[in-house]
Amino acid sequence: MLKERVISALVGAPLIIASLLLGKYVFALLIVIIAVIATDEFYSMLILREFKPNIVAGIGGSIAIFLGTLAGGVSGLLLALVLVMLVVLVWQTFTEGSIVNAGLTMTGLIYITLPLSHLILLYGLAQGVIGVILVLVATWVSDIAAYSFGRAIGKRKLAPTISAKKTIEGTIAGIIAPTIFIGTAFLLPWLPFVAEQGAVVAILKGLGFGLIVGVVAPVGDLIESRIKRELRVKDSGATIPGHGGFLDRFDSVVVAGVIAYYYWLFVV
Question: Which residues are paired to 244 by β-bridges?
């Protein structure tokens, strides 16, 4: 499992970083693809339990939210989200649909698309490309460290009723590893932080950024684990070796990306 996780990260990281270097719209296209697949996986899990989310409205709404984000930033994101919500409610009203299914349709967008759109917002901030790279790599570092140390020395279960394999020891390693990684990255001479802010401020901001990512990344993982347990499925899909589906791979990024955006906006 560890080998498959590392291989998946080594394949996925260069692809995402390459899209970042090719420009905002190429990166946005890749994130849209990830969000659409992950949202479809979420709806598919619901369908297994005989719920009936509006997949067309959900997938179309996901694309609309990203287009709104690209066109108008935060305002465009919110406008698109509101319009999609109205479409879903009209669908529920005039088709005698279930308000539960309408709510679950919106849940997919609020849970997956809305947070992932913050990666595009982060891209647009000053030095935002660096921020996106750091948060993505840091979540992978956290995941690999948590899994490795959990397997090696983990004894105490973190949340046994939600995820039987997660340990407190692994979680601590998953917090420390990205903290050290990003703290060190902020000191690299080819990045602008030391030159602009000084070494002390740069490392403090880097450590804070890494600590936040390390804390919230497992939260995203636990949220998805709770959803899968309730819906009685093992994985959201079977696309990525060592992880399952796209939602299994990016569940931590869903939460970490949002926090990273606001940290970068107000602190960095």
Answer: 240
What 151-157 contacts at long range (C-beta under 8 Å, 24+ apart), as own/partner pairs, is: 151/2
Both ends of the chain: CA-CA distance in Å? 35
What is the sign, positive or negative, of the torsion defined by CA atoms of 174, 175, 179, 182?
A: positive
What is the C-alpha separation between 238 and 246, in angstroms, rounded? 8
The Cα-based distances of 240 to 41, 56, 113 in angstroms read 13, 24, 20
Per-residue b/e over 222-235, b at no fewer than 16 CB within 10 Å?
Answer: bbbbebbeebebeb
Amino acid at 131: G
Question: Are the C-beta atoms of 84 and 107 separated by less than 8 Å?
Answer: no
- Kindly report, residue by residue over 20-52, the tens digit of the pLDDT: 888 889 999 999 999 999 999 999 999 998 899
**What is the C-alpha to C-alpha distance for residues 218 and 145, in angstroms, rounded to an integer?**
11
Burial of 77 (0-12, 13-18, 19+ CB in 10 A): buried
| Distance of alpha carbon 258 from alpha carbon 196, whole angstroms | 25
The SS3 call for residue 8 is: helix
Q: Are 252 and 139 in contact (CB under 8 A)?
A: yes
Dist CA 74 CA 258 (whole Å): 12
pTM of the full predicted structure? 0.89
Half-sphere exposure at residue 37, Cβ-oriented, CA atoms within 13 angstroms: 19
Reported as a single tens digit per residue, the pLDDT across 111-161 is 999 999 999 999 999 999 999 999 988 998 898 898 888 888 877 888 777
Cβ 43 vs Cβ 88: under 8 Å: no
